[in-house]
């Protein structure tokens, strides 16, 4: 669904307004090893004063999806253990996160499952990384986005769903290599436990195969 000019302006306004109260999310982000600089880089925010129709997102972390054409979507993550963990905008089309990385990547690109892992990679390593917002969100036309790269590295969560996410991409894109995190871990938890160099070494090993 193509966004109308008024919808685009509303998303831009929402992302900007919520970003002004991002300090309320800094403790949550710090627990995950992410700085205010990272929050600012990705225009993260907190829904303290929700705009009309955003009342159900109050108190959540706002994660705008930003492309060269502007803000195309916003996802909202619980900060205090609420369920569901993520909420999206009604009728919003699932898209890739941090697509700007595709324009900066050269021979390879990484794919994470989820925005927080993508932010972790982009903010703490030099590896170009995009994100899919869920294991079932891979679309049939996505392989065309990645067909010019020699290698696509899927940083899969350390569980069955994570491996299936990687295999789903691999079935549609034969340049895919799966780098699965340890059992029960994801990119962010691995970064917290082992640091960015651990991830760098694993990616280097994959690229050398």
List the helices and strands and how they pair.
Blueprint: H1 5-19, H2 26-31, H3 36-41, E1 45-46, E2 61-67, E3 70-77, E4 86-88, H4 100-104, E5 108-113, H5 115-124, E6 129-132, H6 142-146, E7 151-156, H7 160-172, E8 176-180, H8 187-194, H9 196-208
Parallel strand pairs: 5-6, 5-7, 7-8
Antiparallel strand pairs: 1-2, 2-3, 3-4
Helix pairs in contact: 8-9
Short description:
By secondary structure, this protein is an alpha/beta fold. It is built from nine helices and eight strands. α8 (187-194) crosses α9 (196-208).
Notes on the structure:
It is a single chain. Helix content is 39%, strand content 20%. The chain is an alpha/beta fold. The chain has two domains: 5-88, Alpha-Beta Complex (DNA primase DNAg catalytic core, N-terminal domain), CATH 3.90.980; 100-208, Dna Topoisomerase Vi A Subunit, Chain: A, domain 2, CATH 3.40.1360.10. It has a four-stranded antiparallel β-sheet, covered by helices on one side. The longest helix is centred in the N-terminal third of the chain and has 15 residues, at 5-19. It starts with a helix and ends with a helix. The mean pLDDT is 95.
Give the uncertain stretches in residue-range form: none
Largest sheet at a glance?
Answer: 4 strands, antiparallel
General form:
globular
CATH architecture of the largest domain: 3-Layer(aba) Sandwich
Mean pLDDT: 95
Class inferred from helices and paired strands: alpha/beta
Q: Please state how the strands of the largest beta sheet are arranged side by side.
A: 1-2-3-4
Helix content: 25-40%
What count of structural domains?
2
CATH class categorisation of the largest domain: Alpha Beta
Percentage beta strand: 15-25%
Task: Give me the Rg, rounded.
Answer: 17 Å
Instruction: Report how far apart the termini are.
Output: 40 Å
The helix-strand sequence is: HHHEEEEHEHEHEHEHH
Number of strands: 8
Number of helical runs?
9
